[in-house]
Design goal:
AB_hydrolase_fold; alpha/beta; hydrolase activity; hydrolase; eight-stranded mixed beta sheet; 12 helices; Fungal lipase-type domain-containing protein; single chain; globular
């Protein structure tokens, strides 16, 4: 039996009777609904809902999109993503206001974990890869990355392309966008509840305690990273090659800092709420001076868990470098509306509702 949350007529954004592409709130609703469409198209597949019984298409038809391709996992054959194409309405009396600069021609959307028998095993496997900073090594991400590269290099180009995803799908979209941003290709990205692999420090009530833990974590991480770097430098025979690699790293960070993904989080969702403290802490460390900014920059590029494992001689437990969730710049959108429980705080449905208390702040890497 279908859940009411799968039915667009029951829980979709019915308030959008006059859609405006220049409105950021409307853009957010579109991105969230297209992600929901991927969730539902996979549920349609699992439950063998076809024709009039299928529930997925209204989630994109309402916004004049067409799902032109499914992205299918090569292990369990589940649909984990899709490519949408915008199809402008032919009727000039439509209530949709089209602004050329705000309309994507294509949108790549990725769903999160589905706790259903046909997909839960593979999805949980991917979740573990995210925890270990190993998402980039999975075949699902390779399929997603190939699709993103193909669309970004097409005749329409990256400027008319959006990336979006929820939870695990947000991590996938984030990694794909991050990979291209390092090469100077920047894609508009709307990420909903992306996982931040870290203890839930943001849930600690005392602000001083939170700040102290983060500062200590940055110092420990930077120290371990510096120790590892010096050890590697001693083992290198070609000093010139080492300098070249360091310069390349700096150039990569500069290129990545120009990308401004939209990170949507809820303080009640411990899987993503640490983004709030992450960006605030970055600013605090820069203000301290006396080398604190350098410490934070070094810490930002490494995984504390991976460095600890590496220092203890445990290899391949957790990737050391570049955690997926760490980005230099970003637009953080926080939903301050009280959630009844974790399920509501983590859900995709909150992001198309019109009764939410949202605040946003742009953080730029300097």
């Amino acid at each position: 039996m279908a859940s009411d949350r799968e039915d667009f007529t029951l829980c979709g954004p019915s308030h959008l009777t006059n859609f405006d592409w220049a409105n950021e709130n409307h853009q957010r609703c579109v991105a969230a609904c297209l992600v929901q469409g991927i969730y539902i198209v996979e549920r349609d597949r699992q439950l063998k809902r076809e024709g009039s019984e299928a529930l997925a298409s209204p989630w994109w038809d309402f916004f004049n999109f067409k799902l032109i391709r499914h992205l299918v996992d090569d292990a369990d054959f589940s649909i984990f993503g899709g490519i949408y194409e915008f199809k402008p309405p032919q009727d000039t009396t439509t209530t949709t206001t089209v602004v050329d600069s705000g309309v994507p021609r294509y949108v790549l959307a990725f769903r999160g974990t589905l706790t259903k028998p046909d997909s839960i095993s593979r999805d949980l496997e991917l979740d573990i890869h995210i925890i270990r900073n190993g998402l980039h090594k999975t075949s699902r991400f390779e399929i997603a990355m190939q699709a993103v590269r193909s669309m970004a290099s097409s005749s329409s180009g990256a400027s008319s392309l959006w990336l979006t995803g929820h939870s695990m799908g947000a991590a996938m979209a984030l990694l794909a966008g991050k990979t291209l941003a390092k090469t100077g290709v920047y894609i508009r990205s709307s990420l909903f509840n992306p996982p931040f692999v870290s203890p839930p420090i943001e849930r600690i009530a005392n602000e001083r305690v939170r700040s102290g833990i983060r500062i200590a974590g940055s110092i420990v991480t930077a120290g371990l990273a510096l120790s590892r770097t010096l050890k590697q430098a001693q083992q290198q025979q070609n000093q010139q090659q080492e300098v070249k690699q360091q310069n390349l790293s700096e150039d990569t960070i500069k290129a990545l800092s120009l990308w401004l993904p939209e990170i949507h989080v809820n303080p009640g969702d411990h899987l993503c709420s640490e983004y709030i403290g992450f960006f605030e802490h970055r600013g605090t460390m820069e203000q301290f001076g006396y080398g604190a900014g350098f410490v934070e920059r070094m810490a930002m590029n490494h995984s504390l868990g991976g460095l600890l494992m590496d220092a203890m001689g445990v290899s391949n437990a957790v990737e050391v470098d570049e955690p997926v969730h760490v980005i230099p710049s970003g637009k953080l959108i926080v939903n301050r509306t009280n959630s009844e429980d974790y399920k509501e705080a983590h859900g995709i449905h909150q992001w198309w509702r019109d009764d939410q208390d949202l605040v946003s702040h742009i953080y730029l890497f300097k």
